[in-house]
Design brief:
It is a single-pass membrane protein. This protein is mainly alpha-helical and about 90 residues long. About 85% of the residues lie in helices and about 0% in strands. It contains two helices and no strands.
């Protein structure tokens, strides 16, 4: 009869608090096993976002520089148009 009492106490239902503790231990174990994979994904995502930002920034700077160059060329072209053609006779 003593054996039946031991089996009943071993198979008794878990309380809500015990279930919660067991669930939290399982979640902690999952976080520990998946942490390195999650870290690498976060690193990859961060690098991708950083590369995108650097690309947009460099494209913007490049296009602004081209606009300045085009404006300078337009200015030089206007000067040459006003001066007229340069030939041996009027230089």
């Amino acid at each position: 009869m003593a054996e039946k009492g031991e089996n009943v106490s071993a198979k008794r239902a878990l309380t809500a608090a015990e279930k919660q503790v067991l669930r939290r231990r399982q979640e902690l174990g999952n976080w520990k096993t998946n942490a390195s994979r999650l870290r690498s994904r976060n690193l990859l995502t961060g690098l991708a976002i950083g590369a995108f930002v650097v690309g947009v920034f460099s494209y913007t700077i490049m296009s602004v520089k081209q606009e300045k160059i085009i404006e300078e060329l337009d200015g030089e072209a206007k000067i040459h148009i006003f001066r007229g053609p340069r030939t041996g006779a009027n230089s």
